[in-house]
Structures are given as C-alpha cells and as structure tokens.
Amino acid sequence: MNFITLLFLLFxxxxxxxxxxxxxxxxxxxxxxxxxxxxxxxxxxxxxxTPKPEISISAPESAKIGESFILTFxxxxxxxxxxxxxxxxxxxxxxxxxxxxxxNQNSDTWLSDTSPWLDFPTISTxxxxxxxxxxxxxVKNEESVGEYHLSLRLRSLSTEKNQDSDLxxxxxxxxxxxxxxxxxxxxxxxxxxxxxxxxTDTPAPTSTPTPPASPTPTIxxxxxxxQSPTPIPTVEEEYPTPDPSxxxxxxxxxxxxxxxxxxxxxxxxxxxYLPYGIIFAGFSLLFAGTGLPKIINRFSKKDKSYTIKxxxxx
Length: 314
Known about the structure:
- The chain is of the alpha+beta class.
- It has helices at 2-13, 252-261, 274-289, 292-313, and strands spanning 54-58, 62-64, 69-76, 83-91, 100-104, 109-112, 122-124, 131-139, 146-156, 162-164, 168-173.
- Among the domains are: 54-173, Immunoglobulin-like (Sandwich); 274-314.
- The strands form two sheets. Strands 2, 4, 7, 9, 10 and 11 form a six-stranded mixed beta sheet that branches.
C-alpha cells in the first residue's frame, strides 16, 4: 500500500514532458566603446594670511635713575591712517611695568604709567598702517637700580584696545651724585681805608692896598670984619693925613705869621692894577681942571687973613 501511494505521489510531482521547439538564432550585439572624459584639475585658490600688527623697539643697554633715554620703535600692519597713543612702560617684574615715565614734548610734561591716555603723545599711521619714530622715557627718581623690562604700548584713539611690543631688557644704574657746594666761610670784615682828604692850602686873600683918600678940605668963609667986638678966631680943624700903613689889614706881625703858614703868593701882573690907575688919573685930572686951584687960592688967602688978624691982636 505504501508502495502504491509512493508511486502515485511520484506521478503527481513529476514534470510533464516539454514540447520540442526549434531554436532561434539570437543576433550578436556589438558594443562601441565610449570615450571617457578627462577631468582637468581646477587650481585651488591660495589663502593669503592677513598680516599681524607688529611692534619692534630698541633702546640703549643701560640708563640712570631719573635720566631720560631714547626709545626707537617701528610699527607695521596697523590700521591705516589711524592715530594711536604711545606710552613707554618699565618695571623689574613683567606684570608690574609701572615704574617708568613718558615725556610729552607738546605739553613739556613727564607722565607716569597711570596718567590719563589723553595726555600721552600721539602718532598717525600711513596708508599701509606703518609708522617709525622715537619716544623719550625714564625710570622714576624714587625707584631702585637693577634690570628692568621695557615695552611700548599703543592704543587707538577710537578704541580701548591696547597693543604691546615684546619686552626688552635695560640696566638701570644709580644717578650721578649731586655735587654739594661747600659752605662759604664767614667773611672776615676788612677795614676799608678811608681816604682822608688832604687839606689844600687855600691862598690867603691878598689885600689890595687902597689908595689913600685925599682929604676933602673944608672951605671956611673968612668973616668980614665988623665993628662988633673982637671976633673970636675960628679954629679950623685939621684933618690928619691917614697913614697908608693903617689901611693894610692886620699888623705886620700878623701878616708875617700868615706869610709863614700860607704858601707863597703869586704876584699879580701890573695889568690887574691898570683900572685903579686909570680911575686915580681921572680923579686927578678932574680936580686939576675944576676946583683944586680955587681951593688952593682960598687956603692961601685964608692964611694971609689969619696972619693979619693975629698981627692986629698982638
């Protein structure tokens, strides 16, 4: 039974016989090769890096406390046509560069590290953002000597961003000692000789002898005899002729003492006496031409009349 069943199952699952077919020829397909395009490499653009702002500085190897020195600097690749403040910074520690001062020539002042930025000197870059210049700096007088770090700081006028240079070493030495002036010694009082004026011999005044005055005769009228009692004769006063020696000032003894003390007198020239001679001659001519003869005649008559009267009385 199992055998029959197996056959039956086999009959069911066996394929049916295929019908015989005439094979048909398949045309061969010829493939034409296609040209592969050559890829031309495209040049990759090179990225040019933007230059970084740079500050280079130089200064003397050493300076003295309180003594100014020149800081030379050169900046590149900064903003073009831009103004910057400049400040020199000094210190013995890298994080404490506040021991220096910067000189502003326009205001003639020394500025410390903490001074306002508005007071510091300014520079202006060119079209390429470059600038070269100098700056005066120094260490404060009260700071100590030793090795210092030096740096230059820039700040744009329009921003608050700082640009610092690399540090530079500089030796700070003691300042020159201030020469002390020696105290002046007290001046010894010097006696100034007083010039005693030498007495000058003053020539004694020379007394000019005054010519003796001619006595003026008194004209006495002769009394006319009358029948009155015997007339009393008129006594005429006779004027003594003055002695020329009395007209000389002082006695001869006093004059001699004056002559001994006084220097010799200069003789006056005769010309000085000419005016006196002319005056004397004029008076003489005047008396001679006018009244002198009459006076003489009158005196002579008077003597005669007086003699006659004496004779009569006797």
